[in-house]
Every structure is written in structure tokens, then in C-alpha cells.
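ugh ok so i messed up the first submission bc i forgot one of the chains. this is the corrected input, ALL of the components this time, i swear. 570 residues overall. if the numbers dont match what u have on ur side tell me asap before i send this to the collaborators (the ones from the other lab, u know who)
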Amino acid sequence: MIPSIPQSPFLRDVYRTYVALFFIYLAAPLVVVSIFAFNDALFPSPPWEGFTLDWFFGQTEPRQGLFYDRSLLNAAMVSLLVAISVTILSVAVGTSNAFLFERENFRFKNFAYVLMLTPLVVPGIILGISILVMSSGIANSVDDAIGIEIEALRPGLVLVVLGQFSFIATITTLVISARLRKFDVSLEEAALNLGATRWVAVRTVTLPYLTPAMLGAGIVAFLMSFENFNTTLMLVGSDAPLTIALFDRLKEGSTPVLNAISLMLMVASALLALIMIALQRERRD
Amino acid sequence: MNRRFGFYLLLAPLVVWLGALIIIPHIDLFLTSLSVKVRPRVYEIGLDNYSAFFGEPLYWNTFARTALMSVSATALTLIIGFPIAYYIAKLAQGRFRATLFVLCLLPFWVSELVRTFGWMILLRETGVVSSALQWLGLTSGPIEFLYNDAAIMVGLVYTSMLFMVVPLVTTLDSLDNSYIEAGYDLGGNSFAVLREIVIPHAKPGIVSGCIIVFMLSLGNYLTPILLGGKDSLWFTQQIYAQFITRFNWEQGSAFGFLLLILSSLIVWGGLKLTGQTLSKTVGQG
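and heres the new structure output, hopefully the right one now
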């Protein structure tokens, strides 16, 4: 079934209908979430009661809009803080790893590479509990031995950042390595011949070449952190990031303010996705 | 000397990351799963936590159910996604093709929580589908589509689709159309061409897609809880309950380790069965 082989029109139409239905299936949940952000009713479900912007700008209960909902805004700030930390850490470590795997040769390199990939095939909830068990173990031992309570090792934002970083670093490593692999080493050698030190050559020639990949990896890391649920769930303390806060509201059954914030998240993700696509275009030219 | 120093500088982040956040926590998880509480703060080594798992039908039933449902979700995702990937890779052309591919990716830039929320609005008793059916006169009263296994399936397949379609499109794209033409020229019908040429060529993509989808379904927490309701019986819920609700970390660690073993076995088996390696499948994804 390829364009150059004739095909019965009936089968072709069936196939096209299937593809169309598939894309309706993909779009349906996102579309209804967006539509009901504007429904003038206390519960995000039909019937349609008319258009309102209350779920964005409403000031008082029960019609408190997203921009006046302190707890949701706080949760968004927590997510932002976590995502920025995870992004910086993962891009830094990812870049270092890329140089290690693309430029160096050492014993156990293949083993180290496979080990580097494993966080992607460990379920997120297990990454979460294993880090929880280890850090609490350390905190307890320190507390028993010298009587000092290390707050950072108890469930909280530090552990959330470490937990998310533990698997996002693999993704940034892969993205940045792929770009470094295509780099023409003779450019760096030219810089060395012209009298640059190794570090200066890397900083002025190689790193600028890697920048699009580092930005791309950073955007992916940011989004994965912002949207992470499983690992975060096991490591969260009293400050809940947005996904956890939304989950709690969702279980209780909430007003369409959830739709409003979901719509904002979609718009933000779409913008980041567009930046990503633009970056990839630039890379191809 | 300088070169050696640079090498260790690059090695250090990798060692700290994998050592402190992946290897040691998993060893700790394993050790914790082997410790049995004798009195408060006094532990012995034993297999009690594992025998508790096999002794309590609820536990291993949930485990088996989670595994079976994940296998079904993987199979469904493959069956639904394959024609779409084929359409994008082989039949759609130019701009249309690029648009379809991006449309496939876009929903997955949106948080899993938002997507699941969308399905709740669609499927619940007062939801869009039920209302539409009543409006069309197909049913007399509201129907609850939520809180059953089918709803979990819909959500799991939806959540996993990207991870199946992208590797499939990549491998199908690399299949030269002339092989397909040759298949037809030699007298094969569409089914024979599919079985003898397309599927064998797409095998790496099928395997890496299935591995990721299975792992994600197995470790999913949001979808079963929100779409399957309180009695959805997903194994990650048991882990969460042991850790957070009952504060029985030893039991929870044993559960976590069992889930990790199952997940790793399936990944390893899938790779062995098709002669692939982790570096080849995940490393390039």
C-alpha cells in the first residue's frame, strides 16, 4: 500500500476515515478541557450554560478564577522553581556526559553507557521510592549518630529535584550527544593550531556549535519536569508542585478553574514546542 | 596529566549521578525489602515481605492484573498506532505529512494530568459522551463510562500512543518503497507484503515502542486511579499505599522491587527475543 501501487478506492476511503477518526480521538480530550474552561457553570460538564471568563478572572468563591487562586498560583511557582533547577542540572550533566561518551575512551565505557540509559526503563514511581528510602536512611543515621536533622533529605523540594533529575539527565545526555557526534573535530584542531588552549577551543568553537542542542534539551527537560507526576508523588513534602496540587483537586471534584489552568498549560507547552521546532529548523539549515 | 584531569572532571558528574541517585538507592531499596521489623527500630534480615506478597491473594492478583492489563494496552496501542504510523511514513506526503506528524506529537506536550482530566469530562456520567447519546435519543438515561477497565484502557492507550507512533514512523520511513513494489511485482497481495516485508523491517521500531509503552503502563498511577476509580487495583497504588498510607516501607520496598523485576524482565526479554540492545533501541529514540 504505497502511492505508486493502485488501490481500491473503497479501501483507501476506509483507511482515510480511520486516520481521521484517530486524530479526533487524539484531539477530543484536549478540546473538551479547553471548551469547558469558558462554561458558565460550577462543574466542568455539559450542558453549555453560556460563555464566561470567571474561571480565569473571577475574584470570589465559588467562582474564584485561576489568577486569584492563591494555592494554585503558589503551586505553579513551586513547579517553576523545580523545573528551572532540574533544567540547569540536567543540561550541565548532560553536556559533560556527552563529551565523556563522544570524546573519551575508557574501560567499561559500554557498561557505563548502558547504565546511563537505565533510568529511562525504570518506572518513575520506583525511582521515587528508592531515592526516598535512601535519603531517609541517611537522615535517620545522621540523626541517631550526631543528633542533627538534615531537612533536605526528608521529602521536599530538594528530593523532588533530585528525583526528576535522575532520569531527565539521560534524555539531555542523548540529545546533546547526538549533536556532538556530528561535530567536525578538525574545527577544534584548527583552533588549537592557532594557539588556543584546549579549554578556550572548546568554549569558543565546540560549545557555540552545541548551543541549539543544549537549548532543545533544556526545553525538553523543563517540560518533563513541569509535567512529572509519578516520581514527584513519592518525594513531595509540604510544598506541592502544580501536578500534585491539580491531582488533589481533581480527586475532590473541582470547578472549571482546573480547565482554565489546563488551558494555560497547553498554551505554554505549545509555545515551547514551537520554539523547539524552530530550533530544529535552524539546525537543519 | 592535564588530559587525565579533564577526563576525571567529565567522569565525576556521571559517577555521582548514577551512583548516588540510581545504583545506591536501588541497592538500598533491595536491602530494605529484606528487612523485617522485630520490635520498633529493630530489624532482622528475612523474606517475610516477599512471602506476605505471595500469601495475600489481593497483592499478587493486583500484580498479575496490572501486568495483563499493561500487555493488553501495549498490544492495543500497537494495533491502533501501526496503521497511523504507516500512513504518515508511506502515504502522506510533503507538508501534509509533516503536519500529521506534529499533530501526533502535540497532545503529548500536554501534561498527563490534563489529558486524563479531558477523558474524565468526556466519559463520566454527566459527561460529554453520555449527554450526546441522550441528546441523540440513543439512550434514555445518563450512562457512566468511567470507573471500569475499558476506561483505564482508553486512557493508557491514549497516554502511550506517542511512544509507539514515533519509533514506528522512524523505522517505516527508512524502508525503501521499491522493496514494497518488488513484493507486489512478485505477486504478493497487501497482506503478504505487510507480513513479509513491512513488519520484519519495522521490527526494531515495534520492539522499542512496545518496551516503552509496556513500562509506562506498568508504572502508571494517574490513569488507573482517575479513570478506574477506587477499585481499579493497579500495583503502583499498592506501593503508594504501603509507603504513604500505612507507612510500611519494608513491605512497600518489596512491592517496588517486584515491579522493577517484572518491568526489567519484559524489557530484557523483548530485547533478547529480537536480538536488539538497549543502546540501539532506547539510545536512538
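quick check: The domain at 57-284 of chain B is CATH 1.10.3720.10 (MetI-like fold). that seems consistent at least. The first helix of chain B runs from residue 2 to 33.
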